[in-house]
Amino acid sequence: MKEQIEKIVADFCTTYRIPGLALQVAKNGEVMLEAYEGYRDVEQKLPINAHTVFGVASITKSFTTLAIMMLQEAGKLHIDDEVKAWIPTLEKIQTGTKIHHLMTHTAGYKGLTAFHRARLQSMLEDKDSAMLFNLPINKALANVVTVEDMIAVMNEEVDSFIGIPGEKFNYSNESYALLQYICEKASGTKYTTFVRSHILEPLGMNRTFFTVDEMNEKENITEIYAYTKDKARQVFHSPTWWASGEIYSAGALKSSIQNIMRYLEIFQNGGTVDGKQFLNEESMKQMMQTEIKSPHGVHYGYGLLNYNIYGETLVGHGGGIKGVSSFMGIVKSAGLTIAVLTNIAEVPTELLVKKTVAEILQLSPNDEEPKMNSTYEHIIKYEGMYDSGEGQKIAVCIENNRLYLRVQHEYIATTQVAHNLFRLPDEKYIAFETDRSGRVCGMYRGMRYYSKQSV
């Protein structure tokens, strides 16, 4: 099995030309497999080990929801509290929106630029950013540093909602930034201080940081890399990390594979590690269970997703930003925890985790997924341009009775498996939404909802 998994990892790194990758798998808390491919610094040929620090991006979100659940157990807040009661300055929020809705990305917010504007200052300092983001950067918009700044932008930017609270899933970094604000109000301390003192330090996670400045004096930190935004997609060294001002709760953490595996023990052991209880078992179950299901198969809990791998449930979360592709997961029934960290974005680390788990547990599909015979008349209605509202656009094209996605220079073929549902080559799905008249009005892809643009 070890040799087969090493081959899976090596082939994966070759396919995606990954500069450096770390993977660990543990059984009941004991590391059973680990793999380190490539380098933390390609030019210097510096190796990767269990203590090499990578970005983890949105894995951070589970730290945020864990903090919220800890504050609920301490009686400082309740996830059914109305958000408006905690953030009275937030004007653009629907009545009935609870903390729970922020945690599950179901507050009804469409794609916004408010959180992204917190990244702009670091992007302006990065000579590669305009090319990597594929858009010119407006210096005048780089005015968001704090959550309070972001709230002011939201009050100006939000003009409608995609659904009532709890109705629709749409991944929202703004929602998780608002959770930072609530965490600070409820705890009476900085978000970073609370997470350090209540999670990182008790677990001994001394290779985990919120900012680049914290890492500057440390050793064994990865360099970061990117793909060129053309058909060649060449890998190049692009050393500037992107930050989001003083907003940390959506994706700021950097960590080592050893530290992330240590963190996963909280979830594997029902909230208690080495005799210290972080959450009671009931709160931990609530955090890990599915709270919302999207039309394209996303099952989201509180900062964690549920995946079905040929009958086994994997609970986890990934992350991606410049220089980062990450994933962590738990297969509680098998006592497995697993994590993958890389030093380049746009790598399907989730797919590697699924393949590794399937190999360890000897899982295979029971039945071949059905396909539909797509006809031009049935699928032409999907053709058009779709916009996330965050700067991401996808063109849907029809060629030879097949639906394709055009994302920048990528041309992605799909396979129709049901009405409004198509499978992608990476085994994920897209789903189209229609209004009451049957008109296609939007598309779910990845974790986001894209509105169809009028011609």
TrEMBL record:
Return the Pfam families for the record. Answer: Beta-lactamase
Q: Which InterPro entries match?
A: AmpC-like (IPR050491), Beta-lactam-related (IPR001466), Beta-lactam/transpept-like (IPR012338)
Residue ranges occupied by any Beta-lactamase-related domain in the UniProt entry: 6-347
Protein's name in the database: Beta-lactamase family protein
- Organism listed in the record: Candidatus Pseudogracilibacillus intestinigallinarum
Lineage from the top down? Bacteria, Bacillati, Bacillota, Bacilli, Bacillales
